[in-house]
Amino acid sequence: MNLRRICNMKTRITEMLGIKYPIIQGAMAWTSESELAAAVGEAGGAGVIATGGRTTEWVRDEIRKTKQLTNKPFGVNLMLMAPNKDEILEVLCQEKVTFVTLGAGNPVPYINPLHAAGIKVIPVVPSVKLAKRIATAGADAIVIEGQEAGGHIGTQTTMALMENVLPEVSIPVIVAGGIVDGRGLAAALLMGAEGVQMGSRFILAKECHMHQNCKDAIIAATDTDSVVTGLTGTHGAVRGLKNAFTTKYLALEFSCGASEEELMAMATGTNSLATVDGDIVNGMVQAGQALNRLNKMESAKSIIESVIAEAKAAIKKVQRLAQ
């Protein structure tokens, strides 16, 4: 392990994407738009536009807006459950974004078309088996995301994924799930990751368009204020803040008081209800578990600068221990 190189924040991900720092902004539906992606890029990280729930025309417009705001690299997240995913894929190839992250489906069929357009492919994976399969299929890097993350989650913790996946694949690995500060970045790099992805921390960026009610709720929350809905179903678990919606949903879910289809219908639209409309009572405020560190609004530049400063300080402590 080259601690000096790690402390300088030079990794295979920074080299692959042409960015200064190994920080990827997580793709959050209804939240990750051009202004945030551009601001993260200008600050030295890699911004990402989220396409979940969006029209193909919206995606093209946001990519072009981002290009007007910055000449730095940025990416787009392609949600593979989206009905217009193939149309969005065509737009991504035409617009030639730097990289694409993929989740909520099988990313393998999308690797070659994206590569043919000169785009780096970075799927999100929940297990060693899938990590190996996707590495063999030619992905440029992967994101492993622990259940501490906000939004849709898997079953393993971030630490367990790092322990299980990092020794088993040779392509660069980006770690996500409950990482909100420089200590988390330092821990991931020291474990052998090439970077981190942060979503919840960037919700509090001034450039993020999430409704202020959601931001205020996240700032007011403490470590035990997140819950997971959908654990018993087949549509996937989702982490967000406790509120009237989650209380009602969980009561029905665990009492078998509603069918899976009824629960799905109940949850549909709750993300945008909170994020766009600001209804933090009946909507789902998706956020990760590291809530005590999410306590103020800042610019994306300030967030990245503080994360990097904290990470370097943490790594220097390790350097002293290693002497």
Keywords:
three-stranded antiparallel β-sheet; alpha/beta; 11 strands; 15 helices; eight-stranded parallel β-sheet; 323 residues
How are the SSEs ordered, and which strands pair?
Layout: H1 3-7, H2 12-17, E1 23-25, H3 34-42, E2 47-50, H4 56-69, E3 74-79, H5 85-95, E4 99-103, H6 108-116, E5 120-125, H7 128-136, E6 142-145, E7 151-153, H8 158-165, E8 173-176, H9 182-191, E9 195-198, H10 200-203, H11 212-220, E10 226-229, E11 237-241, H12 244-255, H13 260-267, H14 270-275, H15 300-322
Parallel strand pairs: 1-9, 2-3, 3-4, 4-5, 5-6, 6-8, 8-9
Antiparallel strand pairs: 7-11, 10-11
Q: What is the β-strand count?
A: 11
Task: Give the fraction of residues assigned to helices.
Answer: 40-55%
Shape: globular
Mean pLDDT: 94
